[in-house]
Amino acid sequence: MFQVGFLAAQDQPPGNEPPTDSPSPGKCYVKCITPDEFKEETVTVEVEPAYTVLKTYPATFKTVEEQVLVKEASKELRYVPAVYETVEVPYISKEEAENLEVIPASFGDDLEEIETYPEVGRWEYRILEDCPSANKEDCMVACYVEYPSKSETVPTKTLEADASTSPIPVAEENASYTKEVVKTPARMEEIEIPAEYATITRQVVDQPARVEEETIPAVTETVTKTVLVKKGGMTVWEEVDCELVGTANLLPILYELNSARITPESEEIIDEHLLSLMQDSPALRIEIMSHTDSRGSDDYNMSLSQQRAQSVVNYLVGKGINRNRLEAKGYGETRLVNKCSNGVECTEAQHQANRRTEFRIIQ
């Protein structure tokens, strides 16, 4: 809000340069509460952790051949031949080994709460309605208003147990072969009986079981949050042109038909009338008010006027003005300046007078 007129001695705008310290004739000041200043930051949240995937390869075997003795050498007596007996000889036909079974990683669900907008508070000034005093300053009330913080809950996953392996034993396999051994040697004439051999095959481990690891990277998500940079609430006086105080000031910009786009010509007008004012008086807050003529539906005109007011705000923000210092308001065809309401025949110039954008100091 703005204050003009007589003020209490302890809350007056600045006067002339010392030593006079008295107000300058013809000057106007606006009492402003400096706004809070914010900035947006992004934080990266790990929603899924990195983990390991294991792939196993079983042991491989190869077949080998061996020469084994199946009949020992002996001597045979001509008259009394040797006597043999058959025995069974065991051997390992397949060695024992281990295979590996994969136990996959297990996960749990979790939630992480991110503060996306901090708790803030500020002084807001209001003038009581039906004030009995001629001096509105006597009816001003300052209220400290707190706005709670805002949070966003982000679902995440936690690694409860990483992937591992469990051994699976491969049992040893046995076999046997038979051979004859001398039970009673030959007597008397000895005849040499040569030994006899046979070829057997068996499987031995060629490559032991192995495991290969693959790391699955973590999954992250970016969250945008608003951070309070500088606390507002300080009361300051800003000198303004007296013609701008207490009224809606015409901003003579023209829009294309059914469009809210800011033209290059309109940018120059905004720079001249508003941008320089807000740069010179950094505590001022401005309301941008946009209107349409009565042609078209009420809902369409209200939406179009809001878009046009917002386009001016967006342009000023792009020029470095804090968005908290600006307020966009579309009024559609609710505030016509002449008789050209629905169904009334008017000239194009009369309709043009209603298609206007205005601004006013609100603090």
Automatic annotation (TrEMBL):
<dbReference type="InterPro" id="IPR006664">
    <property type="entry name" value="OMP_bac"/>
</dbReference>
<feature type="domain" description="OmpA-like">
    <location>
        <begin position="242"/>
        <end position="363"/>
    </location>
</feature>
<dbReference type="GO" id="GO:0009279">
    <property type="term" value="C:cell outer membrane"/>
</dbReference>
<dbReference type="Pfam" id="PF00691">
    <property type="entry name" value="OmpA"/>
</dbReference>
<dbReference type="InterPro" id="IPR006665">
    <property type="entry name" value="OmpA-like"/>
</dbReference>
<keyword id="KW-0472">Membrane</keyword>
<dbReference type="InterPro" id="IPR036737">
    <property type="entry name" value="OmpA-like_sf"/>
</dbReference>
<protein>
    <submittedName>
        <fullName>Outer membrane protein/peptidoglycan-associated (Lipo)protein</fullName>
    </submittedName>
</protein>
<keyword id="KW-0998">Cell outer membrane</keyword>
<dbReference type="InterPro" id="IPR050330">
    <property type="entry name" value="Bact_OuterMem_StrucFunc"/>
</dbReference>
